[in-house]
Design goal:
four-stranded antiparallel beta sheet; globular; single chain; Rossmann fold; alpha/beta; about 240 residues; six-stranded mixed beta sheet
């Protein structure tokens, strides 16, 4: 994924135009594990929404798999998002009426309206991989917070995305569970080569990321683009 001169403004008309992002240049390499840090109001959420194809930049270009996205229509953006991106949020947003297995398969229901037996087998395999095979039939209310977040993580992986955008994925968890979830993300990154960009306010967790990207007042900080942080095993 590459961002070239990306700007984002809000307002206009009767409201004053406010520029939130001021010419972002950024490249995420395949297989990276990076943290995005910045204080509240720095533009992190806006940047993440643009990278997730949920918003369009006011100026500049976002490229995913060599595809320029600024001029794509909604249908093309949705198709590209479903094919290349996965999302994990602070609040897992699991559907309470469905089982863990069904929640993992939800991106397929949304994208193609059905699931195959092969899809069901993959969902079961992903749950087994994160230690939740015996909980596949349980509804979210029957799972702990950490278990629910694990379901949300493998849901994000169901479509085999090349990049997972994780917005404060451990922010709603206690310290021990947050460490376990963060270790799981590292494991998936190492074993599958999936690229992860993790928004976090927790410097301790960010120090476990080989790359730290810092945003302040809508601008990337030149001295914070790459940090020689220790690996997760060295925390």
């Amino acid at each position: 994924m590459t961002l070239e001169g990306v700007k984002k403004s809000y307002g206009g008309g009767k409201s004053p135009l406010v520029e939130v992002l001021h010419g972002i240049d950024l490249q995420l390499e395949e297989g990276e594990f990076a943290a995005l840090l910045g204080p509240s109001g720095s533009g992190k959420s806006t940047l993440l929404n643009i990278m997730g194809l949920l918003e369009t930049p006011t100026a500049g270009e976002l490229r995913i798999a060599d595809t320029a996205t600024a001029s794509l229509d909604d249908a093309a953006r949705t198709a590209l998002r479903n094919r290349y991106l996965g999302f994990v949020f602070q609040f897992h947003h699991l559907l309470p009426a469905f089982s863990a297995l069904e929640n993992v398969m939800m991106p397929l229901f949304a994208g193609q309206g059905r699931v195959t037996s092969h899809d069901r087998q993959r969902a079961a395999m992903l749950l087994q991989r994160v230690g939740l095979a015996e909980h596949a039939a349980k509804q979210p209310v029957q799972l702990s917070g950490g278990q629910q977040q694990r379901v949300a993580i493998v849901r994000a992986l169901m479509n085999r995305p090349r990049l997972v955008l994780a917005d404060e994925p451990t922010g709603n968890l206690d310290t021990q569970t947050a460490n376990e979830v963060f270790a799981l993300l590292h494991e998936l990154n190492r074993e599958d080569g999936t690229t992860f960009l993790i928004v976090t306010h927790d410097q301790r967790l960010a120090d476990g990321c080989p790359r730290q990207i810092r945003l302040l007042d809508g601008r990337l900080q030149p001295d914070g683009l790459v940090s020689p942080a220790p690996s997760a095993s060295g925390r």
